[in-house]
């Protein structure tokens, strides 16, 4: 694709998320990183592939941009975004704000974007962002039921000898944490040998009296060592049908990931859609 036709993307704030977005943009075909806005105190040579990138203290000092990725702290996102939209620069943001404050934040961005005839994608991250899409899909599939969301960022895993001796199991890591309902949950991650039936291993663990005292979730992983090395986030979203609904259904999303890297992917996905969007602020969805 001709370089001139690439969507010109600026990054506002080169912290964890801004840096992850910058790295992703360097490898993009349809978009180009055209500059970075930084605070005065952060100015200085940039490392590696970013070293020739234009850096400015204000977006007006950058070459013409098609969309700005707002990567500043959550409490400054509204002010920064408002200023960009007033200058008719479309934005993508993902401020981690909750509840009524988040609704007010989106309403204000929608007002400003409409008034200045510009588009914004809001909530383009993991949470807020893609997590709400999973939640909605679960609720659509099981309309009468209950959600439970457990976050286990610092889950401590230990090697489980009880599981490691099961035939076909190379090794196992287990961890416990308290779920949203206060009950203890156990997570068991198993690496199995080629040709082993994982369902059989899971059934053996479920039948083991050692694991009978707590609810135990068993997951298969490709490599225990990479799991141990991961410093990412962890969470499990579970939805179960209520007994009164007469059906027995449950859905479970078990996730381990690096929050910043994943959020950068969502920001870029949203940025790609900006040229096609009508004026106003649009909540992130896969179909925006
Ligand atoms: N929705 C999600 O799932 C999700 C996930 C992760 C992050 N986020 C959001 O993404 C944004 C960035 O997060 P982050 O983890 O990248 O934060 P961070 O590492 O603290 O980086 C923020 C950057 O913003 C710039 N900045 C501008 N004004 C600032 C100020 N007053 N104080 C400090 N820094 C300021 C700085 O860049 P310079 O030094 O270049 O000026 C700083 O490095 C936040 O709004 C956060 O809520 C959302």
Summarize this entry quickly:
The protein has 288 residues and is of the alpha/beta class. It is 31% helix and 28% strand. Helix 1 packs across helix 8.
Task: List strands and helices in order, with pairings.
Elements: E1 7-12, H1 16-26, E2 31-37, E3 55-56, E4 67-70, H2 74-86, E5 91-92, H3 99-115, E6 119-122, H4 130-141, E7 145-151, E8 158-159, H5 161-164, E9 169-178, E10 184-192, H6 198-207, E11 215-220, H7 224-229, E12 233-241, E13 250-257, H8 259-273, E14 280-283
Helix pairs in contact: 1-8, 2-3
This protein binds NADP nicotinamide-adenine-dinucleotide phosphate.
Adjacency order of strands in the biggest sheet: 3-2-1-4-5-6-14
* Number of continuous helical runs: 8
Quick one: how many beta strands?
14
Strand content: 25-35%
- Per CATH, the architecture of the largest domain is 3-Layer(aba) Sandwich
CATH topology heading of the largest domain: Rossmann fold
What's the CATH first level of the largest domain?
Alpha Beta
How many individual domains? 2
Mean of all residue-level pLDDT scores: 90
* Class derived from helix and strand content: alpha/beta
The percent range for helix content is: 25-40%
Question: What is the N-to-C order of secondary-structure elements (H for helix, E for strand)?
Answer: EHEEEHEHEHEEHEEHEHEEHE
Shape descriptor? elongated
Low-confidence stretches are: none
Query: How far from one another are the termini?
Result: 23 Å
What small molecules accompany the polymer chains?
NADP nicotinamide-adenine-dinucleotide phosphate
Q: Please name the fourth-level CATH homologous superfamily of the largest domain.
A: NAD(P)-binding Rossmann-like Domain
Largest sheet: 7 strands, parallel
- Structural Rg: 23 Å
